[in-house]
Structures are given as C-alpha cells and as structure tokens.
Amino acid sequence: MTGPLVRLRRLVRGGPSDAPGVVVDALGRVGLVGYGLVHVLVAWLALQVAFGVPDAPADPDGAVGTVARTPGGFAALAFGVVGLVAFAVWQVTAAALGFRWVEGGERVRKRVGAVAKSIATTGLALVVVDYLLGVRREGGDTAARTLAATALGLPGGRLLLGAAAVVILVLAVAMTYTGVRRTFLGDLDLSRVGPLARAAVEWLGVAGHLSRALALGAIGVLAARAAFSADPQRAGGLDAALRVIGSSAPGASLLILVAAGIAAFGLFCMADAATRRA
Fold first, then answer.
1. Out of 60, 150, 215, 255, which residue is the most buried by the measure of CB atoms under 10 Å away?
2. For the whole model, what pTM was predicted?
3. Which sequence ranges are marked TM in the entry (predicted)?
4. How many domains are contained in the chain?
C-alpha cells in the first residue's frame, strides 16, 4: 500500500502545477484572480487617500467591504473564498513538495515564499468569511494595534514586538529581491506567451513586488516604532502604512506611485493565475 505522502507526490507530479490535483489547481487559479482583484481595489482606495477623499480604509478589509456593497458582491465573495482556500492549500503543497526545477538555496527561498503566500491568502479568506457571516471585525490598523498591545503586555514584550518588526522588514527585503531579480518568472510557464505579453507580465511583476515591499517595509517600521516606544498606538496595518508613505517628503506623489504598483501587482496576479506552474 502506498502512503498518503506518496499519493500526494504522484498527484503533484502528474498535474500541470504543484497543486494536489486538477480541482485544487482550477479553484486556486480563481482564488489568485480574486487576490489580484483585492489588490486593485486596495490601490483604488489608496488613490482616494492620496487625493484626500474620505473613504474606506486602504487595506484588504476596505477592499472586501467594497466588493460586498456591489450587486452580486456576496455571491462573488462566497465563490472567491473557496478559491482563496484552494490556493492556500496549493501553496502548502508547493512548500512541501514543489519547485522541482530549482535546487539548493533558491528552492528553499521559494518554498518559504509559498508558506508566506499561503498565510496571506488564508488571512484574506478569513476576512471574507467574517463579512459573509456578518461578524463585526476590527479594521486592519486596529487589529495591528491590538496585537502590538498584547505583545507589549507579555514579559519581554518589547523584544518580541521588535523581533516581529525585524521579520516583517526581512520579508520586505526578500520581496524587493524577488522584484529586482525577477525570480517570480521562474514560477510561470510563459512558453506560449508572445514577447510583448511576456514583457508586460515581467514589468507588472517588478512594479508590483517593489511596491508591496515598500508598503510592507512601512508596516515593519511602524511595528519597530511601537516596540521602541512601548506604545501600541504607533503600530498599524496597511492603511496606516500607506498614510505614512503619503505623509513623507514626496507626499501624495509617492503614494500615487505605490498605488499604481499595487494595482500592477493585482494585474500580475491575474496573469499569474493563467500561467502559474508552482
């Protein structure tokens, strides 16, 4: 008899990607499209911040709320959450068994990245589930401050929160590396894509990864400030990070560029869904 791990390995090796079976592969691609749509909506909300228009917070909570208020939005969210969970499962499988076309440190880095993608899409799926069930949630900034307050209340809490800030900043650096070195292209099958489309996917990926790295780095800086000052109110989520970027010396111009990059990442996710092999 073959064990479950052997059967899973055969499913992965026999399919078009690292997903455990064609159903998870198909649903995961739908989830990846939804993940991209959320980023496009976050970019739109960030533009509202840049132009001083009061609106929903520029974070996944605000984006999901925007979808929920549209006709058919709840049905779209219900379908989307299934896809998000499928993509999370796909990435767990990729982390355990995937990326067979690279070796050594690059395979380890990609597998760690797959774990991060699984966590991110699972988190977004939980946001959607709460909306579908009518659960009242804290906003992203409030949740970040609550977590910071909890950490600071523990023995050695400032060190713990500082360590979390370092992890976030390391992830931002890794995301920058991915964008600059274009290593995301190795996860895609672009053999049937023309040169213009390939160039478009490449530049959407570069702009998207670098913009997300900047936003994630800002979240890490907020966490570090909260740890240094022992003040949880100085922490924040994506909305607070984007507002910090908007209040920097370049001001709204930089925030508009970041918003454009986040939108580019959303479009990249949609191309990714069509061509992903990992």
1. 215
2. 0.85
3. 32-53, 73-102, 114-133, 159-180, 201-228, 248-271
4. 1
Tokens 């690292």 belong to 18
Find out whether 121 and 87 touch, Cβ atoms under 8 Å: yes
For the segment 33-82, what is each residue's pLDDT rounded down to a tens digit?
999 999 999 998 888 888 877 666 777 888 888 888 888 888 889 888 99
Residue from 30, 32, 62 nearest 46 by CA: 62
119: containing domain: 4-275
* Residue where the block lists tokens 């990249």: 268
Task: Compute the Cα dihedral for 110, 140, 136, 69 and give only its sign.
Answer: negative
For 155, phi then psi, to 5°, come to -60, 130
The first and second tokens of residue 43, run together, are 């970019």
